[in-house]
Write a structure and sequence with these properties.
four-stranded antiparallel sheet, alpha+beta, two-stranded antiparallel ribbon, single chain, 6 strands, Alpha-Beta Plaits
């Protein structure tokens, strides 16, 4: 079964930010290593790299006219995603718990991939 894991950064420090620079170098290396190991985990297909939330545009159609605004739809925005082929949602939850954003101020949403048509 396939699952999509949506990574929300929340208050997780982003590389290059002042909060990131305040982290000890050993912790920065651990975070990078954790993400690398998740990308190499069995059944994982990494998602395309997403740009920063500040570069996002949100489109909604109101009265048959598209309305576009700068930024993400939700205040924190999605930081990334991956697809996991796993036996159960419990397996997907275990992998999600390894994602650094889940422990550093963000969250990971796990959804079964389903076909609706």
């Amino acid at each position: 079964m396939k699952f999509v894991l949506l990574i929300y950064q929340g208050s997780t420090p982003l590389p290059g930010s002042e909060a990131w620079k305040a982290l000890p170098e050993a912790q920065q290396k651990t975070i990078y290593a954790d993400y690398a190991s998740i990308g190499e985990a069995p059944g994982v297909t990494p998602g395309l790299p997403l740009g920063l939330p500040s570069a996002a545009r949100t489109v909604q159609v109101r009265g048959e006219k598209p309305q576009v605004r700068n930024g993400t739809h939700l205040s924190e925005g999605v930081g990334g995603f991956l697809v996991l082929e796993a036996e159960s949602i419990e397996d997907a939850v275990q992998l999600a718990a390894r994602i650094p954003a889940a422990r550093l101020g963000g969250a990971v949403e796990v959804r079964p991939a389903e076909q609706y048509w």
